[in-house]
């Protein structure tokens, strides 16, 4: 198996090293793992592509490339330049430092990379490690992902649906914020929404007197409904969420049609 990996935390992020180990084991002794990742951190860029300016790419080592672009740019670079138009069997994105569950999914460059792969008709999985008091001070905060990542990726490859129709499926996986030994299985869950959690900005003044705004997020441990990704993670389970790039609110089509007719 040939696997392309990327992330949004950057080429030197520890989570990418964890993902490389996962991908290497999944690919097998005769497989290949190719890395095309952002040269610098690109968290929060979602599915952005560098449409109006070029992307510099540099070879950092065997099958390892850094691109001055977004995670979606890296997937495009991997598919059409590094791999020269011969698609891999699988794209893996992550392992993100921090969860991409609930509303975070809408902002995630990790998910943006998997979405771009799916739009290119390549199977893809985004993987993220929830951070919290239970794991952030461990020697390896990515312990849960490192211990359980290979199994969950193999299960998805072997048993999950992989339709290749319009807006094909891809998968969003989040590992709970606890030590690996405490993980209590996995749950197929819908994307949730944390109650009253919003992104906002906080103003700071530099020593030179200039005013700057920092984007900040809300409480990542806020309650989320049962059956959702964040709820599963906070209860100690790995969440698996099937996703598509189709943003249509299909359940509202008839109602909107009736209202406007």
Automatic annotation (TrEMBL):
A divalent metal cation binds at residues 8-9, 43, 96. GO terms for cellular component: cytoplasm. The keyword Cytoplasm applies. GO terms for molecular function: 3'-nucleotidase activity; 5'-nucleotidase activity; exopolyphosphatase activity; metal ion binding; nucleotide binding. Residues 3-195 form the Survival protein SurE-like phosphatase/nucleotidase domain. The keyword Metal-binding applies. Pfam families: SurE (PF01975). Keywords: Cytoplasm, Hydrolase, Metal-binding, Nucleotide-binding. Binds 1 divalent metal cation per subunit. NCBIfam families: PRK00346.1-4 (NF001490), PRK13931.1 (NF010541), surE (TIGR00087). Belongs to the SurE nucleotidase family. This is 5'-nucleotidase SurE. The lineage of its organism: Bacteria, Pseudomonadati, Pseudomonadota, Alphaproteobacteria, Rhodobacterales.
